[in-house]
Structures are given as C-alpha cells and as structure tokens.
Amino acid sequence: MNRKFHIKKGDLVQVNTGEDKGKQGKVLAVLPKEERAIVEGINMVSKHTKPNAAHPQGGIIKKEAPIHISNLNVVDPSTGKPTRIGRRRNAEGKLVRYAKKSGVELK
Predict the structure, then answer these.
(1) What digits encode the pLDDT tens for the residues 46-65?
(2) Quick one: pLDDT at residue 81?
(3) pTM score, whole prediction
(4) Do residues 3 and 32 lie in contact, with contact meaning Cβ atoms separated by under 8 Å?
(5) Angle at CA 28, nearest 5°, toward 27 and 31?
(6) CA dist 20 to 1, 17, 90, 96, Å?
(7) Domain segments of the chain: what residues?
(8) Per CATH, is 12-76 categorized as 1.10.530.10?
(9) Going by fewer Cβ within 10 Å, which terminus of the chain is more open, N or C?
(10) What's the rounded Cα separation, in Å, for the pair 39 and 64?
C-alpha cells in the first residue's frame, strides 16, 4: 500500500507536539513505510560511533531521528504559520498542493 502524505522532501514544517514543539525545519527525507519524516534540526539524538573514514576520531555524534508525520504541519509560505494542505487541479489540469489558510499553491 502506497500512501500519500501531506509532507514532501524539501517542505518547511512545524512540529505540533513533543520536545521540539513549535520548532520549524526543512524535511530531509520521508519514510513512507514507517509513516515518519526526518526534519533538519528536529528530534536530535546522540549516536555513539566507532572511528571510521568519515569520522576518524569516532565518539558521540548528534543526528536527526525520524519523527511521526502526524506531529508535523506544513508552514504556509505567505504567512509563515502552520497550515493544512489540500489538492486541486491548476489551469493546466495538473494536480497541485495548496495551503488551506491562504490558498497559495505549494511547489
């Protein structure tokens, strides 16, 4: 089953609940099977790593962990506030996403 989400890679989103409530960040990746997304600077975890080519020193590295899609809202490009997403056909008949609060078309 391939679900459609209101969030895509590259979207600016705001966190609704949890430790990072109110913070905004850019979506780096969407994981459809787990219904989660990785957001820049959100849900940071400490990962212990052995020395390797990428990190010759090793040690503790901070990185983003996936956050559930239901805890994220897309930010309206015109107002900068969270909004819900709708889908409609544009002039060329192509299905596009739009912000429900302002009606602005999302890329």
Answers:
(1) 999 999 998 899 999 999 99
(2) 94
(3) 0.84
(4) yes
(5) 90
(6) 30, 7, 35, 29
(7) 12-76
(8) no
(9) N
(10) 7
